[in-house]
Design a protein that fits this description.
Blueprint lengths: L25 E2 L2 E2 L1 H11 L10 H19 L4 E2 L2 E2 L1 E4 L4 E4 L2 E3 L4 H22 L2 H5 L2 H17 L2 H9 L4 H26 L5 H10 L4 H21 L1 H7 L2 H4 L10 E4 L1 H4 L24 H4 L20 H13 L6 E4 L1 H6 L3 H6 L4 H22 L4 E7 L6 E3 L3 E12 L5 E8 L5 E4 L6 E4 L3 E12 L6 E12 L5 E12 L2
Helix pairs in contact: 2-5, 3-17, 5-7, 5-9, 7-9
Length: about 500
């Protein structure tokens, strides 16, 4: 860690400490000072200092885990196809052994509800953990900043390089950084498109320049978005564009675990020698080194209290613990705890007991109930759907041999990974028989993960029923590979002409 205590922004961009941000107001003379300060805050660049510690290690672990899943998942194979593929052209979503069709959109809606409830639950318990460790914006910013540190150096070197005049050396360093950034962004955008188009075919099309115009467009779009967001916008996305930062305040309370500065222990702050007894001198544990500000990726001062810009990454915790260790003080001046624990002097164990409060228990109850219902519904889900479409041009007719005949079209959707042979039958009237017109039998074969439209006729002897509409049931039965039997019953009507 660097020994110099430097402002979190370049000296040219920050001559005085900026006032606390408040909602902008427009006056007669144009933009208010708050607006001008906000715009200046966006334009100025933050130079986070590198830091080591337990939370920094957790961030590295989460980068590897999330990116191993993201980059590796499209290449997994399942039954000879891509394991996870959202095939919009074919209107099929493949998720390992499960195939979802447009009719199964309810499952996707439930997944979104579960994700939202999980986000509410984790925020109520521990603040913005998702933002600090798993959010794509945070993860790719961490990757891009790692590349930047390796090429340009740590914080002080980057500041000096940016303030130096343009030379061939500076141009070479900047060009190298951006080339690597663009390669990472292109790989990321290509992988993202690989979730919506077979990634092996996408790779071959990319090498041979045979991709379609829309594939090129979305690949370039997401690559550019990754490069711009992680390389340039960075903390501005979290502070000014992310809606989650704005409504997190309604989900946290005084018992939520967040990154918190212990003002009771730390104040009054100030510099001091290691040799003096700071408590006898009436000073708190905070030495006012500003390292907690310098390592913050969003450039805030955690000592000012919890702010919506804080993403809960814990970088300030690692930096402060290192300073406390050098000073011989107890760690934890900045730590994950609750505001109530600070004001009431609770231990970490006592603060954790207050996590299971009514709001959290309600979130847990709703989340578990929906998750159990979701799993049960998926496990008992019928892999075959049959929709009946009446032929409006021929409701009912009498054919040779004294037979009443009704024509239908049956839409079969086989969501399983195996072929199935189905037998058709009808009930509800005397001596009903079913015949598929394309096979001249009562059997229909449906290929794996496909749909088939089959014209069928249902026949009944003339005189077996009174003229008019009669309710009947069409039944299809079959057996999948592995012995699983399937039976689907749908209701329709049979018309007997006068």
């Amino acid at each position: 860690m660097e020994s110099e205590s430097i402002s979190r922004r370049s000296p040219a961009a920050e001559k005085t400490a900026p006032p606390a941000w408040s909602p902008p107001r427009l006056g007669e003379g144009g933009a208010s000072p708050q607006v001008e300060q906000a715009l200046s805050d966006v334009r100025s660049k933050i130079y986070p200092r590198s830091v080591s510690g337990i939370f920094a290690r957790w961030r590295i672990v989460m980068v590897f885990v999330t990116q191993a899943i993201f980059y590796g998942l499209p290449w997994l194979q399942w039954n000879g196809r891509q394991a996870v593929l959202f095939d919009l052209a074919a209107r099929k979503f493949y998720i390992f052994g499960m195939v979802l069709w447009p009719q199964d959109v309810i499952y996707l809606a439930v997944l979104l509800v579960l994700s939202a409830l999980a986000l509410f639950l984790f925020t109520a318990m521990a603040g913005r953990l998702f933002c600090g460790y798993a959010c794509p914006q945070t993860v790719y910013t961490e990757i891009f900043m790692w590349v930047e540190r390796k090429i340009e150096g740590d914080r002080l070197k980057r500041i000096r390089l940016d303030e130096a005049p343009w030379t061939w050396r500076k141009l070479r360093i900047k060009a190298t950084k951006h080339v690597i950034w663009i390669l990472i962004a292109w790989w990321t955008g290509s992988t993202f498109i690989g979730y919506f188009a077979p990634i092996r075919e996408l790779g071959m099309g990319l090498l041979t320049f045979t991709l379609g115009p829309w594939q090129w467009f979305w690949m370039v779009f997401y690559s550019f978005a990754t490069w711009g967001n992680a390389g340039f916008m960075r903390e501005a996305v979290c502070k000014y564009m992310c809606p989650y930062a704005r409504f997190q305040s309604v989900m946290v309370d005084d018992d939520t675990f967040v990154v918190t500065y212990d003002h009771v222990r730390g104040e009054p702050r100030g510099g001091r020698s290691r040799k003096i007894d700071h408590k006898e001198a009436g000073m708190g544990d905070c030495v006012d080194c500003s390292l907690c500000v310098q390592v913050c990726p969003t450039g805030i001062d955690i000592r000012d209290g919890l702010q919506y810009m804080c993403i809960g990454c814990g970088a300030c915790v690692d930096a402060c613990d290192q300073v406390m260790g050098k000073m011989g003080y107890d760690p934890g001046l900045i730590r994950y705890t609750s505001g109530h624990a600070i004001t009431a002097g609770l231990t970490q164990g006592q603060a954790r007991k207050r996590l299971l409060r009514p709001r959290v228990l309600i979130y847990w109850g709703i989340l578990l109930a929906i998750a159990v219902a979701f799993v049960v519904s998926l496990s008992t889900r019928t892999p075959l759907r049959m929709d009946i479409i009446r032929d409006r041009g021929a409701l009912g007719r009498e054919v040779a041999g004294g037979i009443i005949e009704n024509v239908y079209r049956l839409q079969f959707i086989n969501t399983s990974e195996s072929e199935v042979v189905l037998s058709l039958s009808a009930q509800g009237m005397p001596e009903l028989s079913v015949l598929a017109t394309d096979t001249e039998t009562s059997q229909v074969t449906v290929a794996p993960a496909s749909n088939r439209l089959v014209p069928v006729v249902v026949r009944s002897p003339a005189g077996a029923a009174q003229p008019g509409l009669h309710d009947i049931e069409l039944t299809t039965t079959g057996k999948y590979e592995g012995g699983r039997e399937i039976r689907v019953v749908e209701k329709t009507s049979f018309y007997v002409p006068r």
